[in-house]
Amino acid sequence: MEITRREFLKMSAAGAALMAIGCPVAAWAAKGEGEPDRWVKGVCRYCGTGCGVMVGVKGGKVVTVKGDPKNHNAGFLCLKGALMTSVIYAKERITQPLIRKNGKLTPASWDEALNLVASKFKEAIAQHGPKSVAYYGSGQALTEETYLASKIFKAGLKCNNVDGNPRLCMASAVGGYVTTFGKDEPMGSYDDIDNASCFFIIGSNTSECHPILFRRIAARKEANPATKIIVVDPRVTNTTRIADIHISFIPGTDLALLNSMAYVIIKEEMDNPRFHGAYCAFMDKEGKPQTFEDYKKFLEDYAPEKAEKITGIPAKTIKEVAKIFAQSSATMSMWCMGINQRIQGVWANNLIHNLHLLTGQIGRPGATTFSLTGQPNACGGVRDAGGLSHMLPAGRLIANKEHRNQMEKLWGLPEDSLNPEPGLPTIALFEALKEGKIKAMLILCTNPAQSLPDVNRYREAMARKDKFICLIEVFQDAETVQFADVVLAPAFWCERDGVYGCSERRYALIEKAIEPPGQCRPSVNILVDLAKRMGVDPKLVPYNNAADIWDEWRAVAKPTVYNFWGITRERLRKESGLKWPCPSEDHPGTNIRYVRGEDPLVPPDHPTKYFFYGRPDGKAVIWFRPYVGCAEGPDSEYSFVLTTGRVLDQWHTSTMTGKVPEIQRSYPKAFVEINDKDAKKLGIQTGDHVQLETRRDKMVFEARVGEVCRPGLVFVPWFDPKLLINKLTINAVDPISKQPEFKICAVKVSKAAKA
Ligand code: MGD
Ligand code: MGD
Ligand code: SF4
């Protein structure tokens, strides 16, 4: 039976809660395990929504997980978050260190394993210098882990080859915020959702990837039916089902749409000159100052009729959405990988910000430009604490001498002793591994043998006989384990304490609920121990636990715009997360940045209401960013576009969600979505085997035929280790952010005999 849009809205607004609260409770009651004897506060292990959880413990074991009613998610959780118990107790857990001997991973003592790793790193540095080693981390590691690993490598080993999977994910969003506003991280918060009257959702399948935020959006729409929802996505996703307007368009042409919306807004005098005249600077793509008149000339190439030819979106629709965007009382944009995982990712981010600056849809409740973060701690750990190869903590840059000198002082190092040359970003790092230039690599909390693009190339790199890889990994069936020379066994999720920072600048504590199994140790202890054995000055790593590292990180951030001095460990234990800036212990946290009276970093007597203090002139930048196509568009031979992404209940490489029977049953294996008109031409029906072939590799998937993909587009989720779609994806990167274009490459589609 067809459900109406209104019924779907209702279900979306309420459904997540029922799933979350119903299932785990039922599971634990069915097992006769009884009421937990205590509840321990934490944060969900999965997405950047950062839902607060309560972990139910009985007899030293986790028996269930429920939502924290005091956190932003108000007690709601999606199924992934609620079904963590079977992940913790999966039989595939690694519970002791392993060393590869005669090709086989063999149990070893911590001493033996750590000494071996330390000796390999010392040998590489002695023979080839600090550029020959690297750390590859994760937006799922704790803030304390990322801060520490980055300090060990950058300060202790003088090696800036410190990068992580946020390079595959959020680097373009960082680039967008930094180039437009001078500093990273959104100015708004989730509270804006409750005040927006228009949602402009572009390149985000919020319903499947940020379900609890989607629930909040649907609840807003349900409560205020006049709220408009515009979704820009070449697929008909679950998110598009609550849209008033769904724009399906030629993948990779968002830049033309966004410039065209700006054109319409100015042409029809829907811009806000009082805002952009006072608070914005204009710049061409080289960063040269320009005027509003120059901007109007630049936009002439994007009249809706011209943009229609590039995007396939009717000019009438472009005009309509521009009008809704500009004239709604409060517009909130949200975007994710459909925008970031593109070779023009930073530019696309800039163009979304442009629309807000041009219309003044910014810095008011509900009016904000809000990048959705993918991982639970990409913001708090990697972005804020400086876990990328060009960064130092709290927005400081390696290439900036003043920033280096600040960090040398804070870390007790001699002046000018930090290495001034930025390290290698992810793809360049794995290229260097392939070329034999990286001799030893430490990998923590990420599974690059599945998640890197064009992965055959980098699996070959990881398989080199002369390299050394130490992997800190929870599960023995993670793909990267096959390439590791040493595997170290970490404590998982609520088996140690530490902080996660989610999309809305909210820092929240995961408290330790249970003891880790076997010989597993918290990763901060592993890293401190390893650093000392590698010869790092013990004064650089004087920590007994994660709380010590947190206090140092607070002090390091205090003199910067990341000031969260008031977010002490004690406060985090009591409260369910706090949003920085939060400069003192009595500060409640900040909902809206850059606005006088809201943001503690804007002086109360500042002469203007808005102050973009991240920029030298205090003004945000409206950028001229021309439309540029994708790296590898379809042609006569590879005539389809292949896009990759996510499904509701599987997480990334499925090492965790794959251990949950309920989830595995609903998403057992990857498939290819294909439009019914294309399928008809190719003689393909749902369930048939379809071969996808790109310039890199080919593979066979089961078909799902329907209207989800527009004609000419196919979609494959990337969670399945048995069907590694990344063997087919391209490794082209954005020239500014170095983020790969996972979302678009050319592919040949044909009916296959068998899978
Ligand atoms: P994706 O499926 O990667 O998810 O969250 P999302 O970005 O929302 O891609 C989003 C959409 O981009 C897709 O629907 C796709 O059709 C669209 N798209 C493709 N090409 C284009 C284009 O050219 N333009 C536009 N506008 N859209 C395009 C990702 C987020 O999800 C991330 S980064 C992480 S790390 C988390 N991972 C994750 C997970 O693995 N599983 C689940 N269930 N949730 C997750 N949440 C987070
Ligand atoms: P995960 O499965 O999250 O994926 O890619 P990955 O980070 O490689 O890997 C996390 C690993 O850490 C798992 O092996 C897990 O078992 C392990 N782990 C879990 N908890 C812990 C812990 O507490 N400690 C330690 N040490 N290990 C732990 C993510 C990356 O993939 C991202 S973020 C994005 S946005 C990209 N998206 C994307 C896409 O959209 N399409 C395609 N085709 N590829 C993509 N790859 C990217
Ligand atoms: Fe966890 Fe994200 Fe689901 Fe919240 S929405 S419960 S953070 S996976």
Structural write-up:
- This protein is an alpha/beta fold.
- The protein folds into four domains: 84 residues, ADC-like domains (N-terminal domain of TfIIb), CATH 2.20.25; 213 residues, Rossmann fold, CATH 3.40.50.740; 201 residues, Dimethylsulfoxide Reductase, domain 2, CATH 3.40.228; 112 residues, Barwin-like endoglucanases, CATH 2.40.40.
- 32% of the residues lie in helices and 17% in strands.
- The protein is built from 25 helices and 27 strands.
- The strands form six sheets. A seven-stranded mixed β-sheet has the order 5-4-17-16-15-6-7, covered by helices on one side.
- The longest helix is centred in the first third of the chain and has 26 residues.
- It is globular.
- The site of one ligand MGD has 36 residues, from helix 19 and strand 22.
Topology diagram in text:
Elements: H1 5-30, E1 38-43, E2 52-58, E3 61-67, H2 79-82, H3 85-88, E4 98-101, E5 104-107, H4 110-128, E6 133-137, H5 143-156, E7 162-164, H6 171-181, E8 198-202, H7 206-209, H8 211-223, E9 228-232, E10 245-247, H9 254-267, H10 273-279, E11 280-283, E12 289-290, H11 292-299, H12 304-311, H13 315-327, E13 331-335, H14 337-340, H15 345-359, E14 368-371, H16 378-385, H17 401-410, H18 426-434, E15 440-444, H19 448-451, H20 455-462, E16 468-472, E17 486-488, E18 498-501, E19 506-510, H21 523-533, H22 546-557, H23 569-574, E20 578-579, E21 620-623, E22 640-645, H24 661-666, E23 671-675, H25 676-682, E24 689-693, E25 698-706, E26 713-717, E27 745-751
Parallel strand pairs: 6-7, 6-15, 8-9, 8-13, 9-10, 11-21, 13-14, 15-16, 16-17, 22-26, 23-25
Antiparallel strand pairs: 1-2, 2-3, 4-5, 4-17, 11-12, 18-19, 19-20, 22-27, 23-26, 24-25, 24-27
Helix pairs in contact: 1-8, 4-21, 5-16, 5-21, 5-22, 6-15, 9-12, 9-13, 9-15, 12-13, 18-20
This protein binds ligand MGD (2 copies) and iron/sulfur cluster.
